[in-house]
Design a protein that fits this description.
Elements lengths: L2 H12 L8 H11 L8 H12 L11 H26 L8 H14 L4 H10 L4 H13 L7 H13 L3 H13 L7 H13 L3 H13 L7 H13 L3 H11 L1
Helix pairs in contact: 2-4, 4-7, 7-8, 8-9, 9-10, 10-11, 11-12, 12-13
């Protein structure tokens, strides 16, 4: 058999269709790549050719099926994590609920996306180059998901994510400092974090900054600044800030 026929035979079993429309089908095709086509008359004839082919450095097929699967899996997990963190941040109603309710929120999210917790935990441990991943690993430690509760480690991870300008971690820390949750209550630190969030045009930060100025938490009372930040937050849709403006107008 000629070299040309050998190469064509190899591609018959190992070439990936680049025109596939979605990742799921791609993974299915990748799974089938290493499975011989029993009914194919060329299967028996070409089996030795294929085995010998991989012993030679004639053609290098990159990336390997394992690497492709790994890249697809990691890309999808990164997207899922980013969406989860953003969704959790938007669900401000979670604040103030019992810890078990907060924990359930995340567990339900992964369950709905059919993601194994052990897989996501291992992935988080090995992917600490993204602020959302750092924050979520802190969340796992704080609420005891796949690991014993360790709030000290959680706080360190929250701070690390906050230093990377992660708004969710910054708000979490500000909230904890304001109420003294597992940290020494520190209105000044809370105020500074709310100030940073407000500068990022975040409506929650603006609302809390207005509240700090109104009541003198972490700063001197300043009604004008309180009104200013309530107004900014109200324009972003904050119901609390909108109600505050009505009170200010009376």
């Amino acid at each position: 058999m000629s070299d040309n026929i050998e190469i064509q035979t190899v591609y018959k079993y190992y070439q990936v269709d680049n025109k596939l429309s979605n990742k799921q089908q791609l993974i299915q095709n990748l799974d089938n790549i290493d499975k011989p086509i029993i009914n194919d008359p060329l299967c028996t004839e070409s089996s030795k050719i294929i085995q010998n082919f991989f012993k030679l450095d004639i053609i290098e097929i990159e990336p390997t099926t394992q690497n492709i699967k790994k890249n697809i899996f990691e890309e999808d997990l990164s997207i899922v994590i980013d969406k989860l963190v953003k969704l959790y941040f938007r669900k401000s109603a979670n604040k103030g609920k019992e810890e078990e309710a907060k924990k359930k929120f995340v567990l339900d999210y992964f369950n709905n996306h059919k993601i194994n917790l052990q897989e996501i935990y291992k992935w988080l441990l090995n992917n600490q180059n993204n602020s959302n991943s750092i924050y979520l690993l802190g969340y796992f430690n704080y609420y005891g998901i796949m690991v014993n509760i360790n709030k000290q480690i959680a706080l360190e991870l929250y701070q690390k994510a906050a230093d990377l300008e992660n708004v969710v971690a910054q708000f979490e820390l500000a909230y904890m400092y304001y109420y003294g949750l597992d940290v020494v209550r520190d209105y000044h630190k809370a105020f500074k974090l709310f100030e940073i969030l407000s500068e990022k045009d975040d409506p929650r930060g603006m609302k809390w900054l207005g509240f700090c100025y109104e009541c003198g938490f972490g700063t001197e009372k300043n009604t004008d600044k309180a009104f200013y930040w309530y107004k900014k937050s109200a324009e972003k849709g904050s119901k609390y800030a909108q109600n505050k403006l009505k009170i200010f107008s009376k």
